[in-house]
Design brief:
The chain is 48% helix and 20% strand. It has 84 residues and is of the alpha+beta class. Pfam families: PqqD.
Length: 84
């Protein structure tokens, strides 16, 4: 399922990944390059399987592990209210 950030979440890409600002709470989140790839894939309309495939290819990791990591990241972003 494609992902969207909440309206009050600002993003900025850096040389180290992506920084998210939750404007409601003032909390910052820093995404490493792997998480940035996952988020970019989902924001561009891909699903979790697409994101896992991109991670497995880009970072030479096992596809099953990549799928678990993608699912965990998406759960965390959604449960925190940063994304839907």
């Amino acid at each position: 399922m494609p992902m969207r950030f909440a309206a009050d979440v600002s993003t900025a890409e850096t040389e180290y990944g992506t920084v998210l600002l939750d404007e409601r709470s003032g909390s910052y989140w820093e995404l490493n390059p792997t998480a940035t790839l996952v988020v970019r894939t989902l924001l561009d309309g891909g699903d979790e399987a697409d994101a896992a495939a991109a991670v497995a290819e880009q970072f030479d990791v096992d596809r099953a592990q990549a799928q678990q990591d993608v699912e965990a990241l998406v759960r965390q972003l959604r449960s925190s209210g940063l994304a839907s």
